[in-house]
Amino acid sequence: MRIVLLGDSIIGDIGASKFELLLQRMYPGCKIDKSVSSRGSTGCWWYKDENRVQEYVLRHHPDLLIIGGHQRAWRHREHPRRHPAGTRRAALRSAADDSRLRS
Q: What is the pLDDT of residues 50-72, one digit of tens each?
């Protein structure tokens, strides 16, 4: 089984976790071939330009494609650092309020 993982540091961590060993234990006859492409802060949106899907996904002929990343980057479709400072401050205040409510 060929697995391709695309995304940011979250996908990098998942790829480094050796999850394929658990899959091989669950399915003893299955050989896992894993390919991880982690783009750090650019995340999975980077792959949509310049035919990068061909290079990073299609050429591997995956049986399974896993795409992942930070929730904020997904919501804004770009890295949160590129947003105006006021937007970042509001998001940080909201996160701080949430954590105080849970305490």
A: 888 888 889 999 999 998 876 65
Which residues form the domain of 87?
A: 2-102
CA dihedral 88, 90, 92, 97 (to 10 degrees): -170
Are 63 and 1 in contact by the 8 Å Cβ rule? The answer is yes
- As a whole number of angstroms, the distance between CA 100 and CA 6 comes to 34
Sign for the pseudo-dihedral over CA of 7, 9, 10, 11:
positive
Mind listing the pLDDT tens digit for each residue in 2-26?
999 988 888 889 999 999 999 999 9
